[in-house]
């Protein structure tokens, strides 16, 4: 996950995110069912036609006319999202071999596998915009496209797997649920699928932390340490503060995004406070307190200078994550070439038989 | 004399160590789709391992559950075949290992599905469908790598040559076991011959036949694998996870 | 993908594969991790000829006046079952 480009959950934070996904799906069907307009007439202004579709809360589909900037914004956003899923496999994958029980090992394998699947759904959605997955992967590998900075932090203990599930996936879901209502059809549909599948990810993380915090003193300390390290980077996942977020307004107008970074961050904080209490663990913010007037929690902002540094490539694991991805890609080249060569040989044989 | 306990332990250890190795591929596969496929196969193996080890623990009656068996035994107490503990190597080695393993597991689980022990029969019935898929998947890749490019052919043949000796251990006769492994050999040979020939690969001549896994005498690799797998569990004796 | 017996195949998504055999396997692994299907078809994207939205009116509007193709067009007298 990177930042902010989506549209809104209708009801309050914490309360049934999965319900919001289902509501988004229903809204998608409803929009499809409403008497829709056809394509633009020959003399119709295309910009006006596009605006009309967006205004009517209809989905833009792959072969529709769209402004070039809309296409570019979507490609960038969907690709970064896809890259994040793929790179995001690494920090958690780091604990598959050492998972402390066979049940946890199975759950973690399935979860990391889901992330690969989500990356593929998203690359497929991006491809509908006229860019190939190979091109996007190349942009990731040469550093021209980013992935969520959160994955540049290390997973030092087993509790980090829990913290990633609870906080990182939690923040991602707050970001993603509104995306289920994005104006671009393939992205909205991919996000609905992703959100539904991800509903178990956050719960498994929370369950890991709950078990640890109710286990031995060493386990509880491990859980607290993980939360201490992951809390602020998770807050930073929502991107820079609104005042410093230049692209937001246009994305909002296009209904790619429907909430600001700060709104989503606040929603996330409000969700987490009570969940931390149930865990019996402390969020590492001495200034965290309920504000009756705002009906929200006041909290300490994450260190945005640190975020900028991580985005620039200077996080603890940036180099390691990229190196890992490049190595997998490079070492797999001969396998991909073999599969292509085999397919070509078969096709040739078939042609000969037919001739 | 191999009773159901030893037998379940062997099969469970095979599946567990295979799952551990396949899991190492996560985020490293040659293609993203293959990452998902390998994780699926790892999950199948892990699922079978859990059923088998749980049952082994019950048969033993000493209060050991799947985790006690997986995490609190040393390498000398593991009963898996050497084949599964070999390092992953390149993708060709991994496919050779998976191909031979599934060509053995498929007839094994199929026979198990018909055995007198109801629990083992149920596990066999479930696992044989999964093995059929593993065999299908690995066969597809053995063919593609064998009959792909010059480089892939060279690597695949080298992998077959390297892994082949470890297949003999799988079929050591044990007439007292619920399924005598020796009876699976013909099925295995037929599968292997057909796929290798389509893949333009040569089946190595019989020669060196390393073994010992079933008696707890392993390669040097297993101890490292277990050290990594067990480190966290053992660092917190008695803890729940 | 056919989700269950009795339902028709519907499009679930796209993927990459060097050939049809692998495409089918990849589809199984990617799109049925949660038992979403009982049958899968794969079609190379190059084999799909798409209508353009620009042609939508010409392509799809003629069907709009053929309401008699829909069962709701017909009045069913009271008391008639199994129709």
Automatic annotation (TrEMBL), chain A:
> Could you list the residue ranges that cross the membrane?
none
In Swiss-Prot or TrEMBL terms, this protein is called 1,2-phenylacetyl-CoA epoxidase subunit A
GO CC list = cytosol
Organism whose genome encodes this protein: Micromonospora globispora
InterPro entries named among the record's database cross-references: Aromatic_CoA_ox/epox (IPR052703), Ferritin-like (IPR012347), Ferritin-like_SF (IPR009078), PaaA (IPR011881), PaaA_PaaC (IPR007814)
**Biological process annotations from GO:** phenylacetate catabolic process
Listed Pfam families: PaaA_PaaC
Q: What is the lineage of its organism?
A: Bacteria, Bacillati, Actinomycetota, Actinomycetes, Micromonosporales
Q: What Gene3D superfamilies does the record tag this protein with?
A: 1.20.1260.10
**One Gene Ontology MF term:** phenylacetyl-CoA 1,2-epoxidase activity
Automatic annotation (TrEMBL), chain B:
Q: Which gene encodes it?
A: paaI
Cellular-component GO terms for this entry? cytosol
Q: Which residues form the signal peptide?
A: none
Q: Which GO terms describe its biological process?
A: phenylacetate catabolic process
* Lineage of source species: Bacteria, Bacillati, Actinomycetota, Actinomycetes, Micromonosporales
Write down the InterPro entries for this protein, in alphabetical order: Aromatic_CoA_ox/epox, Ferritin-like, Ferritin-like_SF, PaaA_PaaC, PaaC
User: Which SUPFAM superfamilies does the entry link to?
Assistant: Ferritin-like
Domain of life assignment: Bacteria
According to UniProt, the name of this protein is: Phenylacetate-CoA oxygenase subunit PaaI
Automatic annotation (TrEMBL), chain C:
InterPro entries noted in UniProt: PaaB, PaaB_sf
Highest taxon of the source? Bacteria
Q: Which Pfam families does this chain map to?
A: PaaB (PF06243)
Q: What is this protein called?
A: Ring-1,2-phenylacetyl-CoA epoxidase subunit PaaB
This protein's species is Micromonospora vinacea
């Amino acid at each position: 996950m990177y930042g902010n480009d989506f549209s809104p959950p209708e009801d309050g934070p914490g309360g049934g995110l999965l319900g919001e996904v289902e509501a988004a799906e229903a809204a998608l069907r409803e929009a499809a069912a409403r008497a829709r307009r056809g394509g633009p007439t020959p003399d119709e202004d295309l910009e006006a036609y596009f605006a009309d579709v967006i205004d009517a809360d209809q989905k833009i589909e792959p072969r529709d006319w769209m402004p070039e900037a809309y296409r570019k914004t979507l490609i960038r956003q969907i690709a970064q999202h896809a890259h994040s899923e793929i790179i995001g496999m690494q920090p958690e994958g780091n604990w598959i071999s050492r998972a402390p029980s066979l049940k946890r090992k199975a759950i973690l394998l399935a979860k990391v596998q889901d992330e690969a699947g989500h990356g593929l759904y998203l690359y497929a959605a991006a491809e509908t915009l006229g860019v190939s997955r190979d091109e996007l992967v190349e942009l990731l590998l040469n550093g021209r496209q980013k992935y969520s900075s959160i994955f540049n932090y290390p997973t030092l203990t087993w509790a980090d797997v829990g913290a990633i599930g609870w906080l990182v996936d939690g923040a991602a879901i707050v970001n993603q649920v509104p995306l289920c209502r994005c104006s671009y059809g393939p992205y909205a549909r991919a996000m609905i699928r992703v959100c539904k599948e991800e509903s178990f990810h956050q719960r498994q993380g929370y369950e890991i932390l709950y078990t640890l915090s109710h286990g031995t003193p060493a386990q509880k300390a491990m859980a607290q340490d993980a939360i201490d390290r992951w809390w602020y980077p998770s807050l930073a996942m929502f991107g820079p503060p609104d005042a410093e977020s230049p692209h937001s307004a246009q994305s909002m107008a296009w209904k790619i995004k429907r909430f600001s970074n700060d709104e989503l961050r606040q929603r996330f904080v409000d969700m987490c406070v009570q969940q931390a209490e149930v865990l019996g663990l402390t969020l590492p913010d001495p200034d965290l307190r309920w504000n009756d007037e705002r009906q929200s929690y006041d909290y300490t902002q994450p260190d945005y200078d640190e975020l900028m540094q991580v985005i620039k490539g200077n996080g603890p694991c940036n180099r390691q994550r990229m190196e890992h991805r490049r190595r997998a890609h490079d070492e797999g080249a001969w396998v991909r070439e073999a599969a292509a060569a085999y397919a070509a040989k078969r096709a040739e044989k078939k042609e000969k038989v037919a001739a | 004399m191999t009773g159901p306990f030893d037998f379940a332990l062997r099969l469970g250890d095979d599946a567990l160590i295979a799952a551990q190795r396949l899991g190492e591929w996560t985020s490293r596969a040659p293609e993203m789709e293959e990452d998902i496929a390998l994780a699926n196969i790892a999950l199948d193996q892990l699922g079978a391992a859990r059923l088998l080890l749980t049952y082994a623990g019950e048969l033993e009656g000493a209060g050991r559950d799947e985790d006690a068996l997986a995490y609190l035994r040393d390498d000398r107490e593991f009963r898996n075949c050497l084949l599964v503990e070999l390092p992953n190597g390149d993708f060709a080695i991994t496919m050779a290992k998976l191909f031979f393993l599934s060509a053995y597991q498929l007839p094994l689980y199929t026979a198990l599905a018909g055995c007198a022990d109801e629990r083992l029969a149920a596990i066999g019935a479930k696992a044989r469908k999964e093995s059929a898929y593993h065999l299908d998947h690995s066969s597809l890749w053995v063919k593609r790598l064998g009959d792909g490019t010059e480089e892939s052919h060279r690597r695949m043949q080298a992998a077959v040559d390297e892994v082949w000796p470890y297949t003999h251990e799988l079929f050591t006769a044990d007439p007292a076991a619920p399924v005598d492994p020796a009876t699976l050999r013909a099925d295995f040979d037929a599968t292997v011959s057909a796929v290798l020939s389509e893949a333009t690969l040569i089946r190595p001549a019989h020669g060196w036949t390393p073994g010992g896994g079933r008696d707890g005498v392993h390669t040097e690799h297993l101890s490292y694998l277990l050290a990594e797998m067990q480190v966290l569990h053992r660092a917190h004796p008695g803890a729940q996870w | 993908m056919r989700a269950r017996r009795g339902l028709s195949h519907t499009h679930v998504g796209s993927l990459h594969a060097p050939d049809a055999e692998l495409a089918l396997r990849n589809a199984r692994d990617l799109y049925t991790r949660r038992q979403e299907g009982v049958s899968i078809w794969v079609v190379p994207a190059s084999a799909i000829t798409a209508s353009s939205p620009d042609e939508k009116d010409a392509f799809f509007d003629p069907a709009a006046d053929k309401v008699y193709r829909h069962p709701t067009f017909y009045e069913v007298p009271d008391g008639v079952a199994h129709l």
